[in-house]
Amino acid sequence: MASISPTPADLRLYLQYATLALPWFMIVVDLYIMCISLIVFVYEEGVEVKGEEDMYI
What we know:
Elements: H1 8-56
């Protein structure tokens, strides 16, 4: 009778793959968030500068 539950070896292999993939996943997410925040920051700064220039003129 074959056991349906995974063996400790399968779990160890899965854990190994998870620990290998997790840092890369975190790096990708971090870069994605950084790019979005940078774009938003630059856009907001541009809008503020344009508004101030209009006020001075």
